[in-house]
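As a warm-up, study this chain.
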Amino acid sequence: MAPLTILLITFLVVILADRFLLKGRVGLSLAGRIAMACMLLLTGIAHFTSTDAMIQMMPDAIPYKREVVWFTGICELLAIPGLLWHRTAKLTSVVLIVFFIAILPANIAGSLNSAGMGGSEYGPWYLLFRIPLQIFFIGWVWYFGLKIKKTG
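Now compare it with the structure written out below.
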């Protein structure tokens, strides 16, 4: 729930700051990408501060779980500048969409195993929220990174 909250609050703050302080210099595309970048900062750091909980979320078939958690955290952190720089925003958005699809099995496994992280502790019922949330994140990146005109 925290990633969604960070995403939406950051987006609202950036939109309001753009409208009232920056006189439209940021634009909608960059505002959405800034919000996603803030969310990725939160989740990327969590890969290093909550590694053991994230390992519990991973399917049993994945080897080197700790290293995979760290690698995916690095990927999330590396996506931040890619989203924020106009020249790389489109490519980064495509990569993030693939990434969000690729990590969905970990979220499903975490819920089925009732892992103690990010809502997965609520068991399979959490999937009724998590799967649409993952689709929302994919749609967010597609809309703000690929669909609308970039200004920043």
